[in-house]
Amino acid sequence: MSEFVEATERMNLVRPAVSLFGSARTPETHPYFKLAEEIARQLSDSGFTVISGGGPGIMEAANRGAYFGEAPSVGLNIQLPHEQYGNTYQDISISFRHFFARKYIFVRFAIAYVVMPGGFGTLDELFEALTLVQTGKALKLPIILVHEPFWRDMLGWFRNTLVTEGMISPEDMDLIQVIDKPEDIVEAIFKHYEHRGFMPAAGDRGKFLNL
Question: Please, what CATH class does the domain formed by 2-209 belong to?
Answer without folding.
Answer: alpha beta
